[in-house]
Design a protein that fits this description.
There is one protein chain. The chain is mainly alpha-helical and about 350 residues long. It has 3 domains: about 80 residues, no CATH class; about 110 residues, no CATH class; about 100 residues, secretion proteins EscU (name from scop, 3-Layer(aba) Sandwich), CATH 3.40.1690.10. It has 14 helices and 4 strands. Strands 3-2-1-4 form a 4-stranded mixed beta sheet, sandwiched between helices. Keywords: Membrane, Transmembrane, Transmembrane helix. One of its GO terms (cellular component) is plasma membrane. It comes from Kosakonia sacchari. InterPro entries: T3SS_substrate_exporter, T3SS_substrate_exporter_C.
Length: about 350
């Protein structure tokens, strides 16, 4: 089996994209999700704390009600408030997830990736994937992210440890502010470390993905042959393009070729074709000259009659021969008609009286 050391070609990447096989790092959407969701929570925290305080007041007003009724109403109020608070956060999280994927591989619809494949049910293939370099890299990445979160939490909480210990003896009104500052410190410490680690993990995962897409030299050659054609034909075409253009061929003048013509064929559409047959050199008569246009044809016919060159009306044959170039032999479908004309010319020559 040939080693795959060549970088993937653009066509290879496009084909894999159609199958849904694109590079995707889960750390990028996760980083965006945490950043946007937490920032949104911090923006809504003041309002949330105010609403929570109002719920405490409302809960005190339920003290005169039966316990079951009060618990039911309080649960309903909590559910409504949590829904109002979490619905925008959930929307931001979904948007961040979609944005993170779009930034990596753009808009993609790959129905082929959703088709059921029996290879996915193969347990041996699953085991191989579990111990592949990509899966091991993701496992190490997840462990390091967990350690990052633990370290960020510790480094943020440790400076406030004395304040947290004395919080029980302080006023209840200070609790929301202390918690907000503590969560904010933990989040920003964690965000910085996650951003650094995500950048490193992104580069590693990108390298591993490109490595799985590498091609052998034979695959590259086969793809080039399929897309650009055989290299030998391609080289021949390139040599033709680089070769100098052919010299222009001078178009013969009517007066020069008329003396060489055996017969002049004309039709009612003011077109003429001059034929010549050299039995020693060519097997078939060839087109010596052709002309169209009323004035030009009229002058050519007068010159032919003055030189005693036979002029024959053959509209169908003229129409056929006008489609071919000067110097070409008559086509196969014109052989019978042309042979009949040359036979008539031969009979005319035999009936002519011999010169005295």
């Amino acid at each position: 089996m040939a080693e795959k050391n060549e970088q993937p070609t653009p066509k290879k990447i496009r084909d894999e994209r159609k199958k849904g096989n694109v590079f995707k790092n889960e750390g990028v959407p996760l980083l965006l999700l945490i950043t946007l969701a937490m920032e949104f929570i911090f923006m809504m925290m003041e309002r949330g704390i105010a609403r929570l305080q109002q719920l405490f007041v409302v809960a005190l007003s339920f003290m005169t009600l039966p316990f079951i009724t009060a618990a039911k109403r309080l649960t309903q109020l909590l559910a409504v408030e949590l829904s109002i608070f979490l619905a925008p956060v959930l929307g931001v999280a979904i948007g961040a997830r979609l944005l993170g994927n779009w930034l990596q591989f753009g808009f993609l619809i790959a129905p082929e990736s959703a088709m059921p494949k029996f290879e996915r049910l193969n347990p041996l293939q699953k085991i191989q994937q579990m111990f592949s370099s990509r899966e091991l890299a993701e496992l190490v990445s997840s462990l390091l992210k967990f350690l990052t979160i633990v370290y960020a939490s510790y480094s943020a909480v440790y400076p406030h440890i004395n304040e947290i210990l004395h919080l029980a003896a302080s006023l209840l009104m200070r609790l929301p502010q202390v918690l907000r500052n503590l969560v904010s410190d933990i989040f920003h410490h964690m965000l910085i470390l996650l951003a650094v680690w995500t950048a490193l993990d992104f580069g590693l995962q990108k390298y591993l993905f490109i490595k799985t897409q590498r091609m052998s030299l034979e695959e590259v050659r086969r793809e080039n042959k399929d897309t650009e054609g055989d290299p030998h034909i391609k080289s021949y075409r390139r040599s033709l393009m680089m070769s100098p253009p052919p010299m222009p061929v001078d178009v013969p003048q009517p007066g020069e070729v008329l003396k060489l013509a055996d017969v002049v064929l004309n039709d009612a559409a003011s077109r003429v074709v001059l034929l010549r047959y050299e039995q020693q050199n060519i097997a078939l008569p060839h087109i010596l000259f052709k002309q169209q246009g009323k004035d030009a044809v009229s002058g050519l016919l007068d010159s032919a009659r003055a030189l005693n060159i036979p002029v024959i009306d053959a509209p169908q044959l003229v129409h056929l021969l006008m489609q071919y170039e000067i110097g070409q032999a008559i086509p196969r479908q014109a052989i019978a008609h042309t042979a009949y004309i040359y036979n008539q010319l031969q009979q005319m020559k035999t009936r002519e009286p011999a010169p005295e």
